[in-house]
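Please go through the sequence line and token line underneath and see whether the fold suits the sequence. See right below:
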Amino acid sequence: MDTMSRTKTHYLNQPMFGLFAPKSAADSSAIRGHFVAAAGEFVGTYFFLFTAYLGHAMSVDFALESAPGGGNSNQTVIFIALSYGFGLLVAAWILYRVSGGLFNPAVTLGMVITGTLPTIRGLVLFPTQIVGGICAAAVASCIIPVDIATVQTTLAPNMSVAQGLFLEM
């Protein structure tokens, strides 16, 4: 009787009541880890950009006022920034333990260049993030009634492409 109660207690302390034994980190392969991270990056990038595109399009489409010169008003710019910020916050909060929460090919490239991310992982994540962004834009364009081009970032009328490049960097 004592042995049986110890066995039941033992199973209750394990994940999924001992039905599935977790694998140790030494047993899993590096390739499997890269593809798990890639799946997390795809889902995270998709979720981040999907919510950001929908919020951006809604903010521009339903804006009550515009800025002088025909641009977006300050209130609309704040709503757009919050759409991207909260989308990234939620995606990173959910998936940072799976993939690192990069969700941006430029961040991935920068981490590979500085050596903080292995090159192989960067080569796997880079195209995955691009495909996740393309899929998010495709689904968002099917859902919203306005043209998806409304979420395209543009430079201010008096800013050159070179100025925009250095401002973004």
Observations:
- The CA atoms of residues 129 and 164 lie 23 Å apart.
